[in-house]
Design brief:
The protein is an alpha/beta fold. It contains six helices and six strands; from the N terminus they run βαβαβαβαββαα. Strands 1, 2, 3, 4, 5 and 6 form a six-stranded parallel sheet that branches. Strand 3, helix 3 and strand 4 form a beta-alpha-beta unit. It is globular. This is NAD(P)H-dependent oxidoreductase. Its EC number is 1.-.-.-. It is an enzyme of class 1 (oxidoreductase).
């Protein structure tokens, strides 16, 4: 997509979700590269959410007679849930584990519902020769069920343990930076369109 014309619209609030909680993983480095590359843009406002720092158990209250969340879980939700609700778009940074995405990411997704609705989602994936693309394709199905809109273009880092330098940046950045720009441009287009649509007619009403 081409560059957007100047706009008086407020910057789009984008939550960047680091989906892996695995120790020693490359997710934080990949997220730092991405936010560092696009963070200069004045048309987006980034908020990084790292699942590794969230105390969200896999057992959920209010279902099958389970008790209310423990205090630690309530504190985690009090922090992350409003941030997801305030976001107008999302970028999910995900590895590929065993042909899929991490359980930690699915757990964060499943603890929420309306926070995803009628909002666009882009992906930055990494892992092996496939670059995490199988994880992305499965996540598209998950977010479709949650009434979210996933953008067509994504960023795919193949073999990040050799494709990223010690500073966390791609060793050959040209292709990755171009992909990131295209994905964010699409995210911004959908984010603005859906912002207007939600304001004019709240989703699901």
């Amino acid at each position: 997509m081409s560059d957007f014309a100047p706009s008086d619209d407020p910057a789009l609030r984008v939550a960047v979700i680091i989906g892996s909680a695995r120790g020693g993983g490359a997710g934080l480095s990949v997220a730092k590269w991405f936010t560092g590359h696009v963070g200069h843009r004045t048309d987006i406002d980034l908020d990084v959410v790292d699942v590794a720092g969230l105390d969200l158990p896999v057992s959920m209250p209010g279902r099958d007679g389970l008790p209310a969340p423990a205090p630690g879980t309530q504190a985690a939700l009090a922090d992350v849930s409003p941030r997801l609700a305030a976001a107008e778009a999302f970028v999910v940074v995900t590895p590929e584990y065993n042909h899929s995405f991490p359980a930690s990411l699915k757990n964060l997704i499943d603890w929420h519902n309306t926070q995803w609705q009628a909002k666009p989602i882009g992906f930055v994936s990494y892992g092996g020769v496939g670059g995490g693309l199988r994880a992305v394709e499965q996540l598209r199905q998950v977010f479709a069920e949650l009434h979210a809109m996933t953008v067509r273009d994504s960023v795919s880092l193949h073999g990040p343990w050799s494709g990223l330098g010690e500073d966390g940046r791609p060793l050959d950045p040209a292709v990755c930076e171009s992909a990131a720009k295209n994905m964010v441009d699409q995210l911004l287009w959908w984010g603005r369109a859906l912002r207007t649509a939600r304001a004019e007619h709240p989703y699901g009403k």
